[in-house]
Amino acid sequence: MAGHAGLHLWGIDHRLAPTEVRERAHIAPERVGELLAALSREPGFVSAVPVSTCNRTEIYVEALPGFAPFDSMTRSLAGAGLDPSLFTGEHAVRLTDGEAVHRLYRVSAGLESMMLGEPQISGQLKDAYRLAKEHHELGPVLMRAFQGAFRAGKRVRTETKIGEGAVSVAFAAVELARKFFADLPRHRALLVGAGETGALAARHFLQQGIGGLIVVNRSPERARALADDLNGGKGELVRARPWEDLPAALADVDVVLSTTGSLEPVILPEMVRAAMRRRRGRPLYVLDIAVPRDVHPDVARVDETYVFGLDDLDEIVQANLAARRKQLPGAERIIEEELAEFRAWIGEMDLRPSVAEFRAYLEDLKEKQVGYVRRRQSDEVAAAVDASLQQFIKKVLGRSMESLKSAESEQERLQHLATLHRLFAPQTPPTSQEPREPREPHDHP
Amino acid sequence: MRLALTVGEVLLPLLYLLLFVAYLWVFYENRRFAHGWARRLLATTVVAHLAASVIHALVHRHLPMASPLEFLSLLALSLLLIYVVVERRLRVRETGFLVTGVAFLLQFVASAFSVAEPAANPLLEDPGYAGHAVLVLLAYTALSLSFLYAVLYLVLARQLARKTFGLLFRRLPPLEVLERMSVGAAKLGVPLLFGALALGHLWLYDLADKLDPETARSLTPFDPKILASWLIFLVYLVGLAGHRWWGWRGRRMNMLAILTYLAVVLAMGAIHHFIPSFHNFSLRGGV
Questions:
Q1: Three-state DSSP class for A255?
Q2: Residue A232 is assigned to a structural domain of this protein
Q3: How many domains does chain B fold into?
Q4: CATH value at residue A282
Q5: Do B165 and A280 touch (CB under 8 A)?
Q6: Interface check A263 vs B, CB under 8 A
Q7: How many beta carbons lie within 10 A of that of residue B269, not counting itself?
């Protein structure tokens, strides 16, 4: 890497750290500036991108060899008001160079997410990258690594089916509703019960664009309060109706979410049969997420009534997760391809200074030759020689780059680089200078 | 022109095969580029087959219905034509593999066993008859598609009722869309059937003037097939009115579509085989 820049990753995630640890390690956007300012005072520091979501906090740092990862990071974290021990203890993960980049690519593709393949992480990574760029200039390696990670994430999501199918119970409830109704905005839902679970489910259906919601609850005050809360002061999308209206409401909606704490079923077959007569065959999707069940078992036998419970939603989630896991080999292959590109870029980065020296040497020789011809012949002949030598340099440089890239081992490549440097570096006459020590091979990707 | 026809006979089944594969790809993979390929191939196949039919009509100077094999090829084209309209209206391609699969089989048989120049009934050269026959073909193809989507509706409804969350659950469009596709196909079939019947009646009187009196007497508007077709038209019309104005929806509506279609097939089959009619589509020379 340029000037031996390396990558360091310090982080914690949902696999290693419990929620309370993740909460304490969270880096709020307003703290990112403080952390970057603290890091910038450390010797060797180039740039950093802190990524903090509810499931992970990871700090990607690009630094030169003078950077002492442990001391610099702990000092900077403490300087930013964070507890460094969270990032050094049993819950933490610390990776460098190739492993860090591999981890970043996997995170971007959703392979490290709690819900395999979830898409939100991609946006969160982009936000973190943008925020870091607002605070300071990113180093070339970190910039390239993140751009590669975004590309890998996009490819994994478009070239595999890792993002298909709901993998949470709430999304499975909506996915199931979409098997009945093409456009949720054209349909209304009924929420039976105004408890916390019901409110969550209702909120999710509203977020997914359900066309209206009726809340019925034994306590009308709670129904009204929940309706007001869900409306959020905007419009009348959610309305409360008295408990006695429950049978009539069943005829007016297409989705029923039942979540009461009743010990006896509250949605009975005769109630549903009466509603179905008014519905003229329109299907009714009933989701019973109450324990014990709110919907009488015989309701499922009523024509055009489809009753589902938590177990059914869980079955859908498990099937979707299994289908996503089958996509892992394809996703890993894409990540490997993108990593190979990153490695090639890093490899060329090492070559650039030596090749530039070689080019400068050849350009200098060319200028001398062209000057000589101009003095002895004419400008026209000199221009022709210049063009010819330019072609010659291009070919020689191209061939040299190919040879350097195709070196069979890192050791061989470093030897070639050292030879180039020894022969053509400026202010170092090739005949009198001791060969420089080849650079230490490092474990960049 | 004849060379173009020969090339068409080879290329059409290949195009239909590619189309079927593209729609299978859409069903299993549901990728954007699969949808793009299916859409483009559908347009290409329809245009190519239409061009081949026009060339055929110009070369042979009759509708390409002179043999059962030619009829199968025209049936494949009419399936695609009706399907194009349904797909464009609802923008749903997941069920296309079924339609294109059937169309491929029809076209494959038509091309594989085709004969050079089948003897054509002179009726096929009559534009009135040609228009009537094409409208009948399109109308019954549309009603067949309506039947297919009604069957798919019941399959998915059964999977949902039994809580079987398999491939069909994942890949078929929602019940509401399947119902719209079934109703949409019937909405195409009903006016086409009306047009076919109306044109048939007009053509009947036109034809009667050209025939000797004895043969002309056998051409009656009370022919069993004509009466059955009007009855079918009325039943479908009531079904569509029920859907439009009386809110008929769901499993019963789709069951009605299936039963009506089966009744159509059985009635037409029975009339064709057991009741004398001047209407035997003239492949063996009816009138």
A1: strand
A2: yes
A3: 2
A4: 3.40.50.720
A5: no
A6: no
A7: 10
Biggest distance spanned by C-alpha atoms of chain A: 111
Report the distance separating Cα A198 and Cα B167, nearest Å: 30
Residue A111 identity? L
**Is A286 in contact with A271 (CB distance < 8 Å)?**
no
Report d(CA A334, CA A160) in Å as an integer.
9
DSSP A28-97: -HHHHHHHHHHHHTSTTEEEEEEEE-SSEEEEEEEE-TT--HHHHHHHHHHHTT--GGGGTSTTEEEEEH
- Rounded Cα distance between A264 and A250, Å, is 18
Catalytic residue of the set A54, A78, A344, A387: A54
Interchain CB contacts (distance < 8 Å): A and B:
59
Specify whether A226 is located in the same domain as A289: yes
Residue A363 to residue A357: CA distance in whole angstroms: 10
Any domain includes B126: no
DSSP state of A5: -
Q: Is B189 exposed, middle or buried (0-12, 13-18, 19+ CB in 10 A)?
A: buried
Say how many domains are in chain A: 3
Query: Which tokens sit at B271?
Result: 């009339």
Q: Inform me whether the C-beta atom of residue A314 falls under 8 Å from chain B C-beta atoms.
A: no
Q: Residue B186 domain-assigned? A: yes
Q: Which residue's structure tokens are 């973190």?
A: A128
CB contact under 8 A, A179 and B251: no
Q: How far apart are CA B63 and CA B5, in angstroms?
A: 14
DSSP for A331-397, written as a single string: HHHHHHHHHHHHHHHHHHHHHHHHHHHHHHHHHHHHHHHHHHHHHHS-HHHHHHHHHHHHHHHHHHH
Contacts of B87 (CB under 8 A, 6+ apart): B42, B93, B96
Structural domain including B153 reads 140-287
What is the domain range of residue A156? 2-163
Q: What is the ipTM of this complex?
A: 0.80
Question: What does the DSSP assignment read for A205-244?
Answer: HHHTT-SEEEEE-SSHHHHHHHHHHHHTTS-SSEEEE-GG
Among this protein's residues, is A252 annotated catalytic? no
Q: Output the six-digit token pair for A199.
A: 């409110």
Q: Which of A305, A304, A313 is nearest to A286 (CA)?
A: A305
Contact residues on chain B for A164, CB-CB shorter than 8 A: 30
Q: How far apart are CA A264 and CA A173, in angstroms?
A: 23
The encoded tokens of residue A141 equal 């390696």
Which two structure tokens, joined as six digits, stand for B193? 């059937």
List A144's β-bridge partners, or say none. Answer: none
> Using the beta-carbon criterion (under 8 Å), do B169 and A280 form an inter-chain contact?
no
Domain membership of residue B107 (yes or no) is yes
Residues B162 and B54 in one domain: no
Q: Rounded to an integer, what is the distance from CA B4 to the centroid of its chain? A: 25
Same domain (yes/no): B11, B83: yes
Asked if B36 reaches chain A (Cβ–Cβ under 8 Å), the answer is: no
In this structure, the answer to whether residues B11 and B144 fall within a common structural domain is no
Q: From CA A117, how far away is CA A138, in angstroms rounded? A: 28
Vertex B46, ends B240 and B191: CA angle to 5°?
Answer: 20
Q: pLDDT per position in chain A (445 positions), as tens?
A: 445 578 999 999 998 899 889 999 999 998 999 999 999 999 999 999 999 998 899 999 999 988 998 999 999 999 999 999 999 888 899 999 999 999 999 999 999 998 899 888 999 999 999 999 999 999 999 999 999 999 999 999 989 999 888 888 888 899 899 999 989 999 999 999 998 888 988 998 999 899 999 999 999 999 999 999 999 887 889 999 999 999 999 999 999 999 998 999 999 999 999 999 988 888 999 999 888 899 999 999 999 999 999 999 999 999 999 999 999 999 999 999 999 999 888 877 777 777 777 888 888 889 999 999 999 888 889 999 999 999 999 888 888 777 777 777 767 777 777 777 777 765 544 443 333 443 433 333 3
